[in-house]
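Worked example

This section walks through a single chain of length 67. The input is the sequence exactly as stored; nothing has been trimmed or padded.
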Amino acid sequence: MGSKLTVKTGKSTLEFTIVGTEESDPAAGMISHESPLGKAFLGHKKGDKVLVETPRGSLEYTILEVS
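Given that input, the structure is written out below as C-alpha cells.
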C-alpha cells in the first residue's frame, strides 16, 4: 500500500495511489488495495500489461511507472 502508479489505457494516462479501504477516494485517484483495480495492480511492475474485468468489458492498462 502507498504505491503510486502511472498507467496508460487507450489514449489516457492516469495516476493512482493504492491505499487502505478507509482512505480510498477514486475521484482523487486513491484506490483501495481491495478494489478490483487495486487488486489487479498489486504485484506488477513497470512495463507490465494488466487486464481488468469491468461490468462494461475488459480494460487493458500498461504500467508506466511505480514509485
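What to look for: The mean pLDDT is 94.
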